[in-house]
Amino acid sequence: MSNSALTLKNVFAGYGGGMVLQGLDLEVRKGSITCIVGPNGAGKSTVFRVISGLLKASEGDVLLAGESIKSLSPAEILENGVTQVPQSRALFPEMSVKENILMGGYLIRKNPKLLKERMAMVEEMIPIVRERASQPAGHLSGGQRRMVEIARTLILDPSLILMDEPSLGLDPKSVALVSELIKRMTKDGRTVLLIEQNVRLGMYLANDGVVMEAGKVRISAPAKDIAGDPEVASMYLGKTK
Ligand SMILES: Nc1ncnc2c1ncn2[C@@H]1O[C@H](COP(=O)(O)OP(=O)(O)O)[C@@H](O)[C@H]1O
Ligand SMILES: [Mg+2]
């Protein structure tokens, strides 16, 4: 258990109609990159809503490093070190890159020394944050914006980072940069849980792979095994690009 960053146990959750998640079990190892793939509508984004506390599981449990966070509010879960990188268009275009990132650091705004240290850490990890600090976020390319969105999350020094399709809409060069950053984020013990449409990319990035279908985990295996599984490719994934 001590190696576990996140565990979902027999989770049922939905939006009022039927249950979207139907007894979902998920184990995410500390320091890993775990990638969830699966067809549209399988419930991948819903898993993230349950982890962040935006949607309550009606059955089952959610454990962060062994402790249940199931009944915590989204704000409390954030304070416990779980952040989600927004999917897109999350930056304020007229505000500078630095201002946007400082907004992400609102939880530590009363500790200027810590905020400064964190900003230095983020600048070190993502050079564009320093290079473009005073430019309006709206002037950045799509790939640069994605890096700043990640920076805005990193300033809270999260232990578990959720990323829902971070490569969506990016050109190949930006995808490569974001991929490098995702790998880098786990070097110092952070855990990344990723949803990715592009199975080859996702499994190349990840250590552990999860295939979801109809609100359940169908396959949970080392990423390299999932990437090479012809049955997975033909049955579930459609888009392998
Ligand atoms: N806010 C919502 N209200 C009602 N139904 C939703 C909502 N969000 C998602 N759903 C439904 O839940 C199912 C799973 O959606 P989602 O988790 O977004 O799947 P995925 O991310 O795998 O494509 C879909 O059938 C979708 O229509
Ligand atoms: Mg989704």
Describe the structure.
There is one protein chain. The protein is globular, with a radius of gyration of 18 Å. The mean pLDDT is 92. The protein is built from ten helices and ten strands. α3 packs parallel to α6 and α6 runs parallel beside α7. It has a domain of 121 residues: P-loop containing nucleotide triphosphate hydrolases (Rossmann fold, 3-Layer(aba) Sandwich). 37% of the residues lie in helices and 26% in strands. The structure holds adenosine-5'-diphosphate and magnesium ion. The site of magnesium ion (MG) has 3 residues, from α1.
Provide the fold topology.
Blueprint: E1 4-14, E2 19-29, E3 33-37, H1 44-52, E4 59-64, E5 67-68, H2 74-79, E6 82-85, H3 97-104, H4 112-125, H5 128-131, H6 142-154, E7 160-164, H7 172-187, E8 191-195, H8 199-205, E9 208-213, E10 216-222, H9 223-227, H10 230-237
Parallel strand pairs: 3-8, 3-9, 6-7, 7-8
Antiparallel strand pairs: 1-2, 1-4, 4-5, 9-10
Helix pairs in contact: 3-6, 6-7
The structure holds adenosine-5'-diphosphate and magnesium ion (MG).
Mean pLDDT: 92
Strand content: 25-35%
Give unreliable regions as ranges.
Answer: none
- The structural class is alpha/beta
CATH class of the domain at 1-80 and 201-241: Alpha Beta
Report the sheet with the most strands, covering strand number, pairing sense and barrel closure: 6 strands, mixed
Shape: globular
Radius of gyration over alpha carbons? 18 Å
Would you give the CATH topology of the domain at 1-80 and 201-241?
Rossmann fold
Named CATH architecture of the domain at 1-80 and 201-241: 3-Layer(aba) Sandwich
